[in-house]
Amino acid sequence: MNAAAWSVLLTVLVAGWVLLDGAIQGAGATLLQERDHDGGDRRREPAERRVVLGAVWPLLLPGEVWLVAAVAVLVGVFPQAGAELLDAGYPVVIMLVGSWVLRDAGIWLRSRRPGRVWRDVWDVALVVASIVLAGSWGALLGIAWGSGLAALVLGIVAVVVTRLHGDAVVAWRLRRTGPLPVVVTSVMITAPVVGTAVSAWPHLVEGGVSAQAMASLGLVALVVLPVVLALQGLAWWLVSRPLGGRDTQVF
């Protein structure tokens, strides 16, 4: 594999994570409230929150596999670009990782003890962490553009689009809508990733490791990629099914 192929692979991996985890971020951001038929917001009951989390949970672990694979490609194949991005956006990266950990903790711990207060505290943490995670990811894309204004704009865009994407995936699983809204929001949520990749392509390729190292790492990719693709297929197969009672029991 040459530098161009690795760049494409990195873009696909990042876009895959955004597509999967963006649905969870959006669902988490709107966990406590939803828009009713009159256009206003209403507070979700605990049972409704479990349904929302149950609708997106199959995407959690497969999405994180894509993220880990993307980081491995960035660090292993394009170390210069990875180091520069970390140096320029270190506070944003810390916010992203911290909110990611808190979001996952909220999902898994909210129902591990009885009591409404325990659950409500974790639900609030989950909402805040989901919003911060989406915003920090968008800001990191803007930093990759080398612009503070782009970081601000893309951070706001990421928060808005992930909410739309999460609502679309949840509505699809509940069979309130067809798959078309999910397709539309999927394009919206991955477009900034593709645009950033195109913009950063020359600099990314220049900072890659040697051609021999890329070829050697390509052998590793041939082993890992089928596993990632299998997890992706499994995730979308699970999400494509109607939401059942067993999907909400863990939450």
Description:
With 251 residues, the protein is an all-alpha fold. It has one domain. 80% of the residues lie in helices and 2% in strands. The protein is built from ten helices and two strands; from the N terminus they run αββααααααααα. It has a two-stranded antiparallel ribbon with strand order 1-2. A hairpin with a 5-residue loop joins β1 and β2. α6 crosses α8.
List the helices and strands and how they pair.
Blueprint: H1 3-29, E1 33-35, E2 41-43, H2 46-56, H3 60-77, H4 79-88, H5 90-109, H6 116-144, H7 148-173, H8 180-206, H9 211-240, H10 246-249
Antiparallel strand pairs: 1-2
Helix pairs in contact: 1-3, 1-6, 1-7, 1-8, 3-4, 3-9, 5-6, 6-7, 6-8, 7-8
